[in-house]
Amino acid sequence: MSSHDGSTPSSDPSMAQPSQPSISMSSGSRGRTDLAWGHCREAPELSVGCKKTKLVCLYCAQVFAGGGINRFKQHLDGA
Ligand SMILES: [Zn+2]
Predict the structure, then answer these.
(1) What would the 3-class secondary structure string for 16-42 be?
(2) Which tens digit of pLDDT belongs to each residue from 11-68?
(3) How many whole angstroms from 28 Cα to the centroid of ligand 1?
(4) How far away, in angstroms, is 8 Cα from ligand 1 center?
(5) How many other CB atoms are found less than 10 A from the CB of residue 30?
(6) pLDDT reported for residue 19
C-alpha cells in the first residue's frame, strides 16, 4: 500500500460552477406584502376552532374573524 503524499489532485476547479439562484421577482406572491399587516397581528389564541386566523387591530384591539386583511384595510379606512 503506497501512502498518498498529499499531492492528490482535487476536483477540477472549472467544474465548480457557482450555483446561481433563480431570481424570481414575480409579482405572483400576494399576501404579507400589504402595509396593512403592519397595523394588525394574527391572533392564533383567538382562532382556536376557526379555520382562519383572526386578526387583531393593534390600535383598538378589535378582532376580525373573517375577511382577512382586506376587511382590516377597510377598518383602517374608517369602516
Ligand atoms: Zn382599529
Answers:
(1) CCCCCCCCCCCCCCCCCCCHHHHHEEE
(2) 776 766 677 766 655 555 555 678 999 999 999 888 888 788 899 999 999 999 988 8
(3) 29
(4) 68
(5) 8
(6) 75
User: What is the extent of the structural domain holding 67?
Assistant: 52-79
C-alpha to C-alpha distance for 67 and 75, rounded to whole angstroms:
11
Q: How far is the CA of 27 from the centre of ligand 1 (A)?
A: 29
61 within some domain? yes
The x, y and z cell numbers of residue 56, run together, are: 387583531
Residue 22 lies in a domain: no
| Residue 72 domain flag | yes
Residue 38, domain member (yes or no): no
Count how many domains the chain has: 1
- Measured in Å, residue 13 CA sits from the centre of ligand 1 at 59
What spacing in Å lies between the alpha carbon of 75 and ligand 1's midpoint?
Answer: 6
C-alpha of residue 77 to centroid of ligand 1, in Å? 10
pTM of this prediction?
Answer: 0.55
